[in-house]
Amino acid sequence: MTFIPVEYHGVYTTGPEQFTCVLLRWTAQNRILPIWISPILAADLEARDEGFSPRRPGTPDLMLEMITRLTSGVAAINIVSHFEGVFIASVVFNDGEEIDARPSDAITLARALQIGIQVDEDVLTQASFFASDAILEEYFGISIESEDAEELLTPSASGDAAADADFEQMMRSLGMSESDFLDGQGDGFDAENSPEEKDTGSPDT
To answer: Torsions phi, psi of 171, nearest 5?
Structure first.
């Protein structure tokens, strides 16, 4: 496997169903990988990203405490496979041991430990979609410095009509339209019927 570091861009909510997801970005290819999670886990992760500390330890806190006390420490957080919308992650320890995990748990752990997230290149190729700098800013509020500011002035949002068409087709396949993003701009994606929920047959809890 070839693992590629991705940027974490937080929790997003979109669509009339208010689906939630974590947004990861493959920087070199300007491709976006949404990892769909349940609204409850999304709210918890977003609160932690904003510096909230629960009065009593929750599951992520217990997980972190056990790892700190009982293991050699975490070396890497990887998303290793994807099949029919279901992602599988792994937690790799400093001693070489590795355990499977739900992506939502693995991402929460990565954020708590302040370590990066890596995704298998095949997973990125199969499950991510291209998004131009203009689309990232318009739909997700993500500002990416561009060497060519003229790109933002072209009739096509990305300067590549085919890429824009692919993006719109991908959105329609998820049951979403441009208005869904504009209505929830600044929030983003979401997840009750998200692909990852197929792991357990119910929302990612």
So the answer is: -65, -45
| CA 72 – CA 70 distance, rounded (Å) | 7
Provide the residue ranges of all domains of the chain, joining segments of one domain with +.
3-199
Q: Which of 13-22, 59-68, 78-87, 88-97 has the highest mean pLDDT?
A: 88-97
pTM for this model (two decimals): 0.69
SS3 percent helix, strand, coil of the chain, rounded to 5, is 40, 25, 35
Concatenating the DSSP letter of every residue in 80-142 gives: EEEETTEEEEEEEETTS-EEEE-HHHHHHHHHHHT--EEEEHHHHHHH-EE--HHHHHHHH--
Residue range 3-199 in CATH 3.10.690.10: yes
* Position 34, amino acid: P
